[in-house]
Design a protein that fits this description.
78 residues
Length: 78
């Protein structure tokens, strides 16, 4: 076999191995970053579900405070 053919084949194998290695590493990085974004979205959704519950609790507590202030004869702030 001619030495130039051997060099060409070795170059092809090296190029393919390097390209595939780069693709695999890049794919792992993209998957990792997507997972991190999914975790952030899940955390945000958790807060988005809880916020209306907290708002309702604040309304209830606000009414209770107003009622207690009215019972005590304290001036209402509104």
């Amino acid at each position: 076999m001619d030495s130039s053919v051997l060099v060409a084949l070795l170059s092809l194998i090296g190029t393919l191995a390097g390209s595939l290695g780069g693709i695999l590493v890049s794919s792992k990085l993209v998957n990792y970053r997507l997972q991190q974004l999914e975790n952030r979205v899940a955390e945000h959704n958790h807060f988005a579900r809880r916020l209306p519950v907290v708002e309702e609790q604040i309304k209830v507590l606000s009414h209770r405070v107003r009622d207690l202030e009215a019972e005590k004869g304290a001036p209402n702030g509104r």
